[in-house]
Design a protein that fits this description.
mainly alpha; globular
């Protein structure tokens, strides 16, 4: 039986880690294809997705707020509330991903930045993209470790996942502001 201080080395962990890596690679590949790949004829404009950038920014902002609350709850030892808030943050981020995929499926290309801070925008965008790709496996492994009550392993990876996830959520909102306001 696992204690709060000793991770469980269940043989199923290896299976689930492989599943997490496969799912993460599939998601990264699908998103890359949606942004860079060709569209079938008639997809562009088939559905009005003009409201989705605002929806996506709102979901990112909500995820950031939930991450801050979840982190505070963990520091205060309120682990049941922490678990609920972090699962909600995960659900909000998953809803963002679905909305993002729909938006890019029906849009020809991402909106181009036309402001005066191009270097800053590109720096934020590049770090956002790289870390967004990394957050999928990080969040899934962190969620798995928490779900299995592997507290030491969960805390260890959460120290990496939490700030990366928060950065991706906040910079998603910043990118929206730079593109649409």
């Amino acid at each position: 039986m696992e204690t709060a201080e000793q991770p469980n080395h269940d043989p199923r962990d290896g299976f689930w880690m492989r599943i997490i890596l496969i799912v993460s690679a599939l998601i990264a590949g699908a998103v890359a294809f949606l942004i860079l790949g060709p569209r079938p004829e008639g997809m562009r404009g088939a559905v009005d997705v003009s409201a989705l950038p605002t929806v996506n920014a709102s979901l990112n902002g909500l995820a950031a707020l939930l991450l801050l609350v979840g982190g505070l709850l963990a520091k205060r030892g309120r682990f049941d509330a922490h678990r609920k808030v972090m699962l909600t943050a995960f659900a909000v981020s998953a809803a963002f991903l679905v909305s993002y995929v729909i938006y890019h499926w029906f849009k020809e290309a991402p909106k181009q930045y036309t402001g005066d801070l191009r270097g800053l925008y590109l720096t934020i965008l590049l770090t956002h993209i790289v870390l967004a790709a990394l957050i999928v496996p990080l969040a899934l492994v962190t969620l798995y470790r928490g779900w299995r009550d592997q507290r030491r392993a969960h805390r260890k990876i959460a120290r990496i996942t939490w700030p990366v996830w928060l950065y991706v959520s906040v910079t998603g909102v910043v990118i929206y502001v730079m593109l649409y306001t």
